[in-house]
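Colleagues,

Please find the record for the two-part complex below.
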Amino acid sequence: MVTTSEVRVESQIEELQEKRPIMVVIKGLLRKEPVGAAGALIVLAMIIMAVFAPVLTGYDPELNSFEHMLTPPGSQFWLGTDQFGRDLFTRIVYGARTALFVGFTTAFIGATVGLVLGVMSAYFGGRFDLIFQRVMDVFMAFPLIIMALAVVAIFGTGVQNVIIAITIPFIPRCARVVRSNALSIREIPYIDAARALGYSHTRIILRHMVPNVMAPYLIMVTAFVGQAILLEASLSYLGLGVQEPIPAWGLMLQGGAEEYAESAPWVAIWPGVAISLAVFGFNLFGDSVRDVLDPKLRSQ
Amino acid sequence: MKFPSLKYAIPIVAGVALSFVVTGTAHAVKSGGILNLVVGSKIPSYDGHIESTFGMIHPIRPFYSLLIRINPENPSSPTDFICDICDGKVPKGADGGKSYTFKIRKGVKFHDGTPLTAHDIVATYNKIIFPPKGIASSRKAFFKMVDSVTASDDFTVVFKLKFASGAFIPAVATPFNFIYAKKDLDKNGYTWHKKNINGTGAFTFVQHQPGSFVEGKKYGNYHHKGRPYLDGFKAISAPKMALRLQAIRGDRAAIEFRGFPPKARDDLVNALGDKITVQESDWNCALFFTPNHAKKPFDDVRVRKALTLAVDRWGGSKYLSKIAIVKTVGGVAYPNHPLAATKEELIKLVGYGTDIEKNRAEARKLLKESGHEGLTFVLNNRGVDQPYKVVGTWLIGQWKKVGMNVTQQVNPSPLFYDILRKKKNFDVSIDFNCQSVINPIADVTKFLGSAGNNYGSYEDQVLEDIYDKLQKAETEAEQRKHMRAYEKRALSDQAHMGITLWWYKINPHRSYVKGWKIAPSHYLNQSLDNIWLDK
């Protein structure tokens, strides 16, 4: 029997926990995961750039201004201009939008579809699992970039098709990881209990199994964002991704960097730095998320 | 001792000098070696009669011969033609210029061993000029003056014309008019040459690794005795310009026949000094944008005029020429030709006025009138950097300045052509008119709705009638008058297509490549039979 005083103590603890200032939480995280915090800072900077792009720069990222073509970095154009006279800082800032949009969309869709399919595969098991996993094996036999290239070759170029091209190879990668977690969850008695209560497969999968594999899912999502940014940049660099005049970092490398690497190196350097930083940031952040969410690593 | 008189001495001295020159030249030419060349586009098909791209002509032309060709020693001349498969000199027109009789070389064999006769020439030209329904022929419109092509015997071909035309001989010399074997056409049909090669050219086909390279080896029975000098060639596919540049810089390839922008030329010369030779020329090639008249709102002439009015050609010439292989503002005819428009004539055309703000205000007004303010459409472009993607990006910027919202769909060459020719579902497409022999009367057929290489999906009888008059005009003044009317109708009154800028050709190549001379077209002088390597 629960007494009134016990209830009061519990509610006081909850109140204390709720009232823990956000700065304290951040400080704690910074102390525990300084590298991850650095990654989060980069990610945050990217998000700010993407959201507040029109505030951060007064130039149009797409409009040609030939009288300023290939201007070196200076007070007027902080990072210089490209061969069309477009401000590189502006294109980098707006390019963050493209990178994040493609990155988050593909990571979220790819990982979510993979999550559902992976849990389904584990839950149903048997022949379904066997066939499904062999299909996943086929997809996973191709390196990410090759798979994405094949998809772009079928659907054509453009932002939408790039998203499809990157999403498809993510699905089996997430499904495989999630399935291995879901297999152990399937054996826990509460799943049998849910079955005994007559719950539908959909309800068991979505309400009882999926929430229990969220940790690997979140880790995969954060890892995928970085990979997706790199893939989008690679496809655009190869001329198969985002097309001019949309600002995108890989495209900026492709568009002028090759020709002007010697005479106007800033055209190549800044998009390269942006891609490297973004991928680096997401990888650091993803690693820390894994450290925080993985119980084994947490206990260590 | 008595000295020979002057009348004997001069011929003797001249003869000795000439023999030294000839011997010297003969000694200078070295046989052997493989020419590695880089090609910046893919091969849509092997059929010269339907293709219009250097992606096909550079790797495939060496396998074929032509009836006549431009003089490889004087390729810049628009009038210097010599026989290739024909024998002797290029014939003059008889019967008031309405009949041309070509004598055909004897002993010429196709690479499969089939002897070449006049019947092969007739079958080839009938395919080009009078293709059956459903068979494409990109240069059919060049031969509007031709009434019939017949063989009077096994080694004589007669072209009968409906009317005399100075455009006929240059049209025959077009380097796409590959001579096919009648046997192949009869037995395998008119589409066989899209995927198969059997010619009489200087090189025989060895292999084609799609997306990688085309390889050819010396044809021992080539009809120009002593040639080719090369043992073979390898045309390496390299769609990215940076890759082609590095290939030449690193000596993985010796030449790229199409052309580089000024910046690339400067980089190569700075890096390699006298190991690089640069040849430059005006280029019989113009980059267009073609609205699809079959798609709304591009069926509205006001919208088409707005498209052309938004483009700052004079400003583009100044700046784009620094980063792209385009330079000259021009109308429908090759800018340096007597039939081309002068600047005074050009600025009267819609979109050519020098006051760009006034032009753009007019464009906005027309868009408003037509109810298409803020017009949104997709520009179909070709996945080749120079000049397509560069000019495409510039064009989008120009259109944006009058409030249009344009996105770009860049496609590899085969898909790009598929969209233009078969799907025909584009809004506006980058298009081009790259001709070979400078022959403005034939070259401007591109603007006719009936032309095989016109992708605008329109019919314009007025324009066709003007062209008929142009073709039949006898004096240059008369031709000029009709050319202006044609130009005004096509570019200004109807704005069927918009010309951006004409190209400028810059060919830096390894200095050990000898015997090749630049022409005003990247299609010309590509038989490779006159090239040798000074290694």
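Residues 114 and 171 of chain A are 4 Å apart (CA to CA).

Comments are welcome before we finalize the supplementary table.
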